């Protein structure tokens, strides 16, 4: 057990869960991750193993067949999984966000229908906000839902769906003007629909097409896709929560916990990069001794370890804040921002320690070097996080007249 990134105050159950996940990562993920990543192959055997461990239902309440664990427990598991291969954490993270949104905002019928099968991993979740013409500006969404009898007709194109192909349930955010007169603020006229579909690519249900995987620099294995809706009919009882106009708030709640998980991913990747760097520095010799004995390398290792520790502490703090029932957008934004930036820096320092070998695909650090940049933009860019942090700080420290 590494001294870095320890989490104090965990229960015996939490420690047992983490120990089990860590053992699974060491035995089942790390030995095959680089090979699967180079082939851009979906890690079906790994996903099946996580399903057997109950990871897909980790935060789903026990009454629906889940383990009923906290966000902290989940984030620590994500950290361990990302240490093995970040793509695997993406497979369960989007699933987790959809399950969380249904648990927090769904109708009782929606909870009863989806959560038990999501806990078993029989239903896999994905969620969709972004579109080709927008990035962080969610208010510019153009996909629309129009009421037609006892259903809604959805049209539009969505982008950057993690699990877009392998999922069987997608939470889709679209504009819905019904009941919201012209001039209503954009964020008050958005609705989240729970769209069930067949896994795969092509036309996965009438009016819904998943064209294929987007070829990415890193974050391979997991499928990232577009979603094209053309006359897609969705029953009215698949409006999340049963009421239109609340989708923006529901999605933001999901993204808030998602940011804690992106921070956890950054912590896991950074920790693995440090492990690789500190090991290589003791094996590689230069000028008659291991390079770890050179002061310049020791300085790098010291900085890397400090960043790993700091990012982990902020991630744990953000998770515990959310678990307490308090608002945590400030802490989640800080944790996501710091962990992502530190992850990039730690990976690059480990890459430098490896020298020319870091550029070789035979070494694991090459994969991490391509994966780390995704964290800088996923669940909101660094600039968006700083905007959130700045606004919340001004709320907290507003001068009184």
Distance between the termini: 53 Å
Mean pLDDT: 93
Q: Helix-strand pattern, N to C?
A: HHHHHEEEEEEEEHEEHHHH
Number of continuous helical runs: 10
Report the C-alpha radius of gyration, rounded: 22 Å
Strand % is 5-15%
Can you list the strand order of the major beta sheet? 2-3-8-7-6
Based on DSSP secondary structure assignment, what is the total number of beta strands? 10
Write down the overall geometry.
Answer: globular
Task: Name the structural class.
Answer: alpha+beta
- Multimeric state: single chain
Helix content: 40-55%
Largest sheet: 5 strands, antiparallel
Question: What is the element layout, followed by pairings?
Answer:
Blueprint: H1 12-39, H2 44-53, H3 71-84, H4 86-105, H5 108-119, E1 125-128, E2 144-148, E3 151-162, E4 169-175, E5 190-196, E6 202-205, E7 208-210, E8 224-235, H6 247-283, E9 285-286, E10 289-290, H7 295-323, H8 329-354, H9 364-375, H10 382-396
Helix pairs in contact: 1-3, 3-4, 3-6, 3-7, 4-5, 4-6, 6-7, 6-8, 6-9, 7-8, 8-9, 8-10
